[in-house]
């Protein structure tokens, strides 16, 4: 119970959590590879490539990313948040590096196609999938390895990373919208903060 007059956001970071920068992505990936954390490398790579929400990421099954003989290049899911509205499936492309990390992880884990793709460390494939709180704790540990302040980031930072990078490089907001599975382009503008970023860029060029 907060004391009367207490400031609710004292000591907290509020507002949208920023995406990871390309350099931060490279650093986290390098650190996880150095630790030979096959599951974590695959999980981090898929999170960045797909821009899926945490609730969708943890519910992936092996069959979503693999066939009996290969790793899929295109992953297609129905988002948990919009499945009751019969929204169109969302597709994402896995990079060659991500497919390689999945291949190594699945060869080591020996999971059948119907199994959850990500479970807790040491948990059998037949048991529950990784929870969103477990996913956050993993992400927090990755940030700490990279000497980044976890208070500045959240799981939406992972989701924003690739669409924000695509928009910065190409200016193609429609591509970012499709990657995020948003019904409205305005939702995408607000989600990745394009107008805010453009305003700050303009502000850098002018001084009073």
What does this structure look like?
- The chain has 208 residues and is mostly helical.
- The protein has 10 helices and 2 strands; from the N terminus they run ααααββαααααα.
- It has a two-stranded antiparallel ribbon.
- The longest helix is centred in the C-terminal third of the chain and has 16 residues, at 155-170.
- Mean pLDDT is 83; it is low at 6-14.
Give the N-to-C terminal Cα separation. 45 Å
SS strand fraction: under 5%
**Strand elements, count:** 2
Counted by DSSP, the helix tally is 10
Oligomer: single chain
Order of helices and strands: HHHHEEHHHHHH
**Which ranges are low-confidence, i.e. pLDDT below 50, for 5 or more consecutive residues?**
6-14
**Overall average residue pLDDT:** 83
Largest sheet: 2 strands, antiparallel
Overall 3D form: globular
Side by side, the strands of the main sheet go 1-2
Radius of gyration: 18 Å
Structural class: mainly alpha
Binned, the helix content reads 40-55%
List the helices and strands and how they pair.
Elements: H1 22-34, H2 38-50, H3 54-57, H4 62-65, E1 74-77, E2 90-93, H5 96-109, H6 132-145, H7 155-170, H8 173-180, H9 185-192, H10 194-205
Antiparallel strand pairs: 1-2
Give a quick rundown of the structure:
Helices cover 51% and strands 4% of the residues.
Can you give keywords for this protein?
208 residues, mainly alpha, two-stranded antiparallel ribbon, globular
